Amino acid sequence: MSKIKINQPIVGIYGEQMLREKIGTPDNKPKELEPQTLKTISIACLLLPKVTMYGPQGNVLVEGDTDKQKFEKWDLYKKFRDAVDDEINLTPEEVILLTSVVVENEVQLVAGQVRDMIQ
Fold first, then answer.
1. Whose C-alpha in 15, 39, 58, 59 is 20 to 30 A from the C-alpha of 3?
2. Do residues 4 and 90 lie in contact, with contact meaning Cβ atoms separated by under 8 Å?
3. How much is the average pLDDT of 9-36?
4. Radius of gyration of the chain from Cα atoms?
5. Residues facing 88 on adjacent strands
6. Which of 76, 81, 106 lies closest to 92 in space, CA to CA?
7. How many other C-beta atoms are found inside a 10 Å radius of the C-beta of residue 65?
8. Model-level pTM?
């Protein structure tokens, strides 16, 4: 198990902490920007479903999440959501899962920082 500090900042190319729209803001409220951290990036990526994509002939190009993968992502999301003292413990399997979902959904500037933070 690796103990990880989840409030480590995600920075842009000039070293400033990145800002993004806050997830879950209702449509009738003004959009808020929030500073990006390992926690905010991880939660966003873990909650994004990987959908099956089909080619023009109906063939599968990208396989979507299986039920098992959805539940693994959900369980890891809950670790970040319920973190106490801004730290969590990740198993080697969880490190692999988090790395893969971040790589699928983020640019290398963000994915590289997340990888470095959790390994």
1. 15
2. yes
3. 91
4. 16
5. 4
6. 76
7. 16
8. 0.89
